[in-house]
Each structure stands twice: as structure tokens, then as C-alpha cells.
Amino acid sequence: MNRLQKIWKDPVWSKVIAAGLIFIISQIPVVISSIISNQSISQIYNNILLFLTSDCIIPCWIFILIIIVSIGSLVFGLKILRNKNNIEKLENEVVPKPKESDNNTQIEENELRINEAPTVFYHYRFCEAFPGFNNGYKWFTKNKDINTRLSILLKHPTRFKKADGHGITNDPVWWFRGSSAMPIDSIKIIGCNKILLNYDELKIEKIAAYRGRSYYQDFVYVQCLPDKPIGIYNYDKEYMEECLKNNRNYTEDFGLYKGKILTRQEYDDGAAVIKGKPQSISGAELRTRFLTKYNFIIAAKYSPYNCDEFYKTSDGLFGGLLKSEVSFDDFINGMKNFEKNRNDY
Q1: 204: burial class by Cβ within 10 Å (0-12, 13-18, 19+)?
Q2: SS3 of 124-143
Q3: By C-alpha distance, which of 177, 139, 142, 167 is closest to 329?
Q4: What per-residue confidence (pLDDT) applies to 165?
Q5: In 10 A of CB 269, how many CB atoms?
Q6: Angle at which helices 308-322 and 328-335 pack, to 10 degrees?
Q7: In the prediction, which pLDDT does 97 show?
Q8: Structure pTM?
Q9: CA-to-CA distance for 173 and 200, rounded, in angstroms?
Q10: CA 108, 152, 204: angle at the middle one, nearest 5?
Q11: Which of 78, 102, 232, 341 is least crowded, fewest Cβ atoms below 10 Å from its Cβ?
């Protein structure tokens, strides 16, 4: 018995045995037909051959060939699907992490400790992502370049556990647009021309890196195309056009939970009706899409652009760029007017 099991598990003999079994099973209909019709097996094969070569609307052999190819394609497709499922299963397996040593823990804590001013930290990141040019700006329009440069600029960490020193913060990199501003915690490439910045899905059209005469003036301008609606809300196109006209953006918030799209209300409630039953959606992700053109800058927290004057006056600059009413040179000249932040020292 053990010998048979060994042969069956052998990669060569298992295929030979399987082929033999398939042949034997395929002969069962032939034997049954021979018994029922009281004909020899050779006569049965002759009848089959006659059927295959007989005339009809299309030759029977073509019909049989179509069936064989269809079955083969189905088997091949199922095999690919099974291999894909196996790969996904392996990727989704949770591998227990080895217990970190005290030394590794100390290294991680040091990596998440910052002792540089936000403008200094940002300048170093800026030089790493956009090396090789002096005062001025440079455009990047290819998706590969955009993804690479932003991934370097905003690589982990951009949020720190500890900040040592006066005027040093644990969130040195922010995005700014008019009176809106937020620290940047993470970036993820989710498509050829799409990134996830914190929880914002951004369909990026182009970026421009600006290096000022002083290190604290550096910033990256990001311009985004309008995205498609996720499909769970109704929209007023006239209101969307009005938003763009008045230098505002039109967004939609939604949640993602195990492949299911949630409304913002469901996300806020922490539960949703799934398969007819209310269920907890703990661990759901929040997402925001921009359905109108959108632009903003990425800069240091205590850059010159973090001030009341920028909040009050820059909406016109950003909106003017999107409507082609302001040139980028005029935008740069407007940005030069903001003075060094009083918190940057």
C-alpha cells in the first residue's frame, strides 16, 4: 500500500496513471454501445469515424474540434484562475513577525525622532527628490516621473513620534491651498496617474518643483484632473461648475470595506447593511475624490505659505491657474511675496 502511495505521489508516475485512467474512462461508452447494439468494438469505432466524416451544414470534424478547443480553453482558464487564487491566498496570509530585539526597537524610535526645523527637513527631502537645478521651477508631466519624485519627497516617515528642540514639530510636511491645509502622513501609488495622499485620491496631471533663493521657499505645485464619481451619490453638474468658477473644489467622501463601497454616513456610523444585515465595519478606509479640477502645493509646515495673508489671497492664484487666467510665472511671483514664517528659526 505504501508503495502505491509513493508511486501516486511521484510527479512522473502520477501523470502516467492519470492518463491511463482517462483512457479507460473514455472507453466505457464504447463498450456499453457495443453491448447494447450487439456489435464489435471495431464496428463501433468505424461508426464513429463514419459520423465524423459524414456531410452536414458544417463538417462534423470541425464541430468536434470546436468542442475540444472550447473545453481546452475552459480548463486552461480555470487553471489560471486557480493559480491566481492561490497566489492571492499566499499574499494575504499573515506571517507572524519575529519578536523585535531591544536594539531594533531603539533604531525604530531613533528613526521616528526629528531634531530638524520643518523647513530644513523639507529642503533636504526636496533636494533628494528634485536634484540638479538652482533657483526657479521645473515641470514634470510624465506619470512615472511624477510618481517617483513624489514617492521620494514624501517617503516614510513624514510624521514622527518625538520632536526634539524649540520650533521643531512632529509633522514637518504639509499641503496648502487657500485657507485649507493639512499635514501629510502618507503617500501610496494606486494607479498609473493616481496617488493616495492621506485619504485623498488624486488623479495627477502634472507637478512643478520650485526652488527659491532661500531654502525655506521650496515647494511643489500639484495639479489634478477631475475624477469620475464613485457611483453612489447624485450630483448637480451646475453646482460643480459653480464651484470651479468660484475657486472651490467639489469632492465626494466614501468608505471602503472588504471591497464594498460605503457612503460617508455609513463610514461615520461605523456600521453598514451587508447582505441584508447591519454589520460593524471596523477597519474601513475613508477616501475622498475630487470631481472638479484641483491644485495645491506641498511645502514645509513653517514655510512662508503658512500665514494669514496666504489664506486670504491665494485662492485667486490657485483658481486662476486652473482657469488659465493666471500664468505660472505670475503664480510664482505671487508666492515670492510671502515672507519668512515667524515660527521658522
Answers
A1: buried
A2: HHHHHHCCCCCCEEEEECCH
A3: 139
A4: 87
A5: 14
A6: 180
A7: 44
A8: 0.69
A9: 16
A10: 130
A11: 102
Grid look-up 472638479 returns 292
Q: How many residues does the chain have?
A: 345
Residue 96: what pLDDT?
41
pLDDT at 82: 59
Q: Are 301 and 118 in contact (CB under 8 A)?
A: yes
Helix (H, G, I), strand (E, B) or coil at 174: strand
Beta-carbon contacts of residue 158 (< 8 Å; ≥ 6 apart): 171, 172, 173, 183, 184, 185, 186
For 174-230, the pLDDT digits (tens) are 999 999 999 999 999 998 889 999 999 999 999 999 999 999 999 999 999 999 999
pLDDT band of residue 47 (cuts 50, 70, 90) is confident
Q: 273 forms bridges with which residues in the sheet?
A: 278
Q: What are the Cα distances from residue 241, in Å, to 206, 250, 291, 336? A: 22, 9, 10, 30
- Output the CA angle 172-173-176, nearest 5 degrees: 130
- pLDDT computed for residue 200 by the predictor: 98
- Rounded mean pLDDT, 108-129: 89
Rounded CA separation 254/232 (Å): 9
**CA 213, 218, 222 angle in degrees (round to 5)?**
135
Calpha distance 2→8 (Å, rounded): 10
Amino acid code (one letter) for 222: V
**Is 172 a residue whose pLDDT tops 90?**
yes
Residue with cell 513624514: 158
Q: State residue 223 phi and psi, 5-degree precision.
A: -120, 130
pLDDT for res 102: 52
Cβ distance 302 to 180 under 8 Å?
no
119, three cell numbers: 523647513
Q: Cβ(295)–Cβ(222) under 8 Å?
A: yes
